[in-house]
Amino acid sequence: MNTQEIAEKLCEHCRNHTETQGLEDLYADNAVSVEPMAMEGMSPISEGKGAIHAKHEWWNENFEVHGAELEGPFINGNKFSIVFEIDATDKNSGQRWKSKEVALYEVEEGKIARESFFMLPMA
Amino acid sequence: MNTQEIAEKLCEHCRNHTETQGLEDLYADNAVSVEPMAMEGMSPISEGKGAIHAKHEWWNENFEVHGAELEGPFINGNKFSIVFEIDATDKNSGQRWKSKEVALYEVEEGKIARESFFMLPMA
Lengths: 123, 123
What we know:
2 copies of one chain form a homodimer. With 123 residues, chain A is of the alpha+beta class. Helices cover 29% and strands 48% of the residues of chain A.
């Protein structure tokens, strides 16, 4: 698959809530995921598909998602971007927040090799 | 300036239509600008501040901008992103279009060293 096909497949998985399958099918085994900051004692960098799966599980255990919208994919060469808007409640604190973030994906040899998430600065 | 300060300054210049000053102040002399595709016989890659200025001039000569909105900056480490929504008319063809694009900026040694623009695939 080329970058556009991978990008469109990933958007489809996100829209259908089949992200786990998307990670399995579209990511390189040694893919790296980079958050803008460390969350609750975790590293901001997850290395390898297993670590990214674990991050997804942590997210699903700790957050209740009320809504998630996405725009994209936006493409440039072997990179693409998706803009996410998320409305979720932190199950531990009870705090609900809406946030928008930009995700950047880098494709190498037909697989997603790196994803990074960009956030608005804290007020 | 750190990445967040540079990112906020660039957004301010875009909102105030002082992009030329923003390019002068915030970009490295050898900064590179990467479009998702070549426009009208031009290269998709502009190398150096002079070439980026020339691209801005080409844009200003060839397009009438009715509206431009931006969201951001979204930040991750030494990179940041801005989401632009542009409503413009191509003066040559008379065609008016609205488009959204994601811009990615990479900061090195306190200057923007690289910008890339991500577009939705053509329908």
